[in-house]
C-alpha cells in the first residue's frame, strides 16, 4: 500500500494520503511529549500531577481500573506493525497514554487543511487519524466495541465540539494556504456542490467579513445554501417521488454497481460484521417497535464528503411518527479490514457496517400513501462525526425538502429504509459537471413504480 496515494474506494476525503496523516499525527505527538524529561523517542505516560482535562483523566482511570481494558489498551499498540527503517513515514504513537496526550492537543485545535499536489485535503477527523491504527488490530477491534470506552470517547469528542462552536475555533477560517476559505479549498467546495459561479452566490455568507461571517468552525461546517440553489423541482412534488435527504453520493458494497445493487429483501438479522457487510434491520433500528415493517424491505445508503453540505432534509411529505438518537461505537471497523490489510481511512471500508453500530439518529416519516408507507431516515455518525442534531419531533408535519436535522463536527453517511413491498426505481447519478458522483440535496432519488 502506497503512503503517498489517495485511498482507493474512500468516499468523502476525510483524510489525506497516509504519509500526510502520519506526518501530522507524529508532529502532534512530539509536541504533546516535548516537555517530558523522558527522551522523545521513548514511550511516555500521563503525568498524574499535570492539569489534564477531566475527560482525559476519566478515560485513563477507566482503562487503568479495568484489567481487561488495560490489557487490550497495551496489546492494541503492540500489535501495530512498526517500520523502524523510516519511522517518520509511519505511525509513531507508542501507547495509550500518548494517544491521550495527543487527544489533549486536538481538543483545543480546529481541523486543518493541507496541500496535496495540485489539490487540497483536510484532516477533518483528527481523532480517527490517531486511533485508526490501534483500532485496526485484533485487540483494538475488541477495545473499541466496549460500551464504557465509547462513553469516554463521547465525552472527549463532546468537549471538542464545544470548542468547535466557540470563536476560538476560527483559526483556519481564512484564505491562507492552509485555510478553509483558501482559493484551493473553495474550488473543492464548488466542485462538490456542482457549482460554477461565485461562492457567495452558493452559500449564505459575507465574503467581506472576517471568516465570511461564520463565528466558529461549526458554523462554517453547517453552512447553508442560498435558498434558490436547492429546491424541490415541481416534477418531484408528487407523493410517489423520493428526494435525496443529503448532499451525497450512492454507497453500495465494494465491487457492486449503483443503482443495480441497491440492497433489497434485507434481513431482520444478519452477520453485518463480516466483509460483505449485509444490512441487519433490527440492529440498524436498535430493535425499535417499527423494525418489522422494514424486514425484507429496501435500504439505500449515501456518503457525504467533508466538503459537502451537512444538513438533512425530508425525503417525502408526511408526519413524523417517531425519532430516536442511538449512542453507538466510534472507531469499530469490520474485522476483515483489520491487519494485515487495514482500512487506511477507517472506517471508510466499513460504512455499511456502521449503519448497525455507529451513533445514529432515526426519523420515521409516515407518507400516508399506501404504496409508500413509512420511510425511515438514518443519519450515521462516523468516528467523531457523531453529533446528530434533530430538528423535528414526533407529531411534526414535514413537507418534502424541509430541514429535519444536521451533522456537526463532520459528516458521514445516511440510509433510507423502505417497507417490504415498496417497489422503487432509483435515479441514475447525474453526469454533467459532477465529477464526484453526487446527488444534490432535494433532487430526485427514486420513485415508487
Automatic annotation (TrEMBL):
<keyword id="KW-0456">Lyase</keyword>
<feature type="domain" description="L-tryptophan decarboxylase PsiD-like">
    <location>
        <begin position="55"/>
        <end position="189"/>
    </location>
</feature>
<dbReference type="Pfam" id="PF02666">
    <property type="entry name" value="PS_Dcarbxylase"/>
</dbReference>
<protein>
    <submittedName>
        <fullName>Phophatidylserine decarboxylase-domain-containing protein</fullName>
    </submittedName>
</protein>
<dbReference type="GO" id="GO:0005739">
    <property type="term" value="C:mitochondrion"/>
</dbReference>
<dbReference type="Pfam" id="PF12588">
    <property type="entry name" value="PSDC"/>
</dbReference>
<dbReference type="InterPro" id="IPR003817">
    <property type="entry name" value="PS_Dcarbxylase"/>
</dbReference>
<dbReference type="InterPro" id="IPR022237">
    <property type="entry name" value="PsiD-like"/>
</dbReference>
<dbReference type="GO" id="GO:0004609">
    <property type="term" value="F:phosphatidylserine decarboxylase activity"/>
</dbReference>
<keyword id="KW-0210">Decarboxylase</keyword>
<dbReference type="GO" id="GO:0006646">
    <property type="term" value="P:phosphatidylethanolamine biosynthetic process"/>
</dbReference>
